[in-house]
Write a structure and sequence with these properties.
By secondary structure, the chain is an alpha+beta fold. About 45% of the residues lie in helices and about 15% in strands. It is built from eleven helices and twelve strands. The strands form four sheets. Strands 6-9-10-11 form a four-stranded mixed beta sheet, sandwiched between helices. Strands 1-2-3 form a three-stranded mixed beta sheet. Helix 2 crosses helix 3, helix 6 crosses helix 7 and helix 7 packs across helix 11. It is elongated and about 75 Å long.
């Protein structure tokens, strides 16, 4: 009721009025309200409503009737779809693989949902637009917790090396914690770390990286460090480095270290 453009808050509340009782916000706007950050700028307000209700989309209110209406979560008085539903409702309408993978990875990494919840939602929900999120989810189901780790998972598959475990904790013979490598080859005690230069060169992070590498060395663990950018710019070279480092790990006696989830 004023001459200026509606605010985001007003758009959301107007869309909920359009949806009526039991409607809830899903997709990108819901993810923003849940506090996720690695998402595109939201536009239309995507709503879920009971399937029996005869309400259609209008203006910026995108109405989706569903027989699988989840229990909403209230944030500042607004009903939101739970994260596992909202992130996939948003992902099905996107066409950029990296964006979708970043959204799914952030939702899991920040403990807003589990890979299993995403997998079940993909299986039970609409199959329209599910190809990209289904592909993006594969690395996450195997333990990757970031886009860089998902890229690394793809590279590891291409290397044809034995299967690796992702983000498991490694301990020495006395049970002392060594590290939590991005990828871990249990049979030969080989660790692969995807290390961002910007992150690991800064202050305390640099010292922590040196201390981690010292623990690897003291425990007899062979470790390969790779910059995330090289996973896409030099995949062939990285694969060669993986194979050669794995061979070096095979050539020495396996140290008495163990891993746990």
């Amino acid at each position: 009721m004023h001459p200026s453009e509606p605010t985001d808050e007003e758009r959301l509340r107007a869309a909920l009025l359009r949806g009526g009782s039991r409607s809830m916000i899903t997709g990108l706007w819901a993810l923003r309200r849940h506090g996720l950050q690695r998402i595109p700028e939201p536009d239309d307000v995507h709503l879920l409503i009971p399937h029996a209700r005869e309400v259609t989309s209008a203006g910026f209110a995108l109405i989706e009737r569903t027989t699988r209406l989840p229990n909403p979560l209230l944030r500042d008085g607004m009903p939101l779809a739970p994260v596992h539903r909202a992130v996939l409702d948003g992902a099905r309408r996107l066409r950029d693989f990296d964006t979708v993978q970043a959204m799914l990875a952030e939702a899991v990494q920040r403990r807003r949902c589990t890979p299993g919840q995403l997998d079940r939602e993909l299986s039970l929900g609409s199959q329209r637009g599910s190809a990209i999120p289904r592909r993006a989810l594969q690395a996450i189901l195997n333990g990757a917790e970031s886009v860089a780790e998902a890229d690394a998972w793809e590279i590891w598959k291409l290397s044809e090396l034995p299967s690796a475990e992702w983000n498991v904790s490694v301990f020495d013979r006395d049970g002392s914690f060594i590290s939590k490598p991005d990828a871990w080859c249990e049979d030969v005690a080989f660790a692969w770390e995807i290390d961002s230069r910007g992150y690991h060169e800064g202050g305390d992070h640099y010292a922590a990286t040196l201390a981690r590498n010292a623990r690897y060395s003291a425990a007899g663990i062979v470790c390969l460090q790779t910059l995330p950018s090289r996973l896409r710019t030099e995949p062939g070279v990285v694969i060669t480095e993986l194979r050669e480092t794995y061979a070096a790990a095979c050539a020495r006696p396996r140290p008495p270290v163990t891993c746990r989830p």
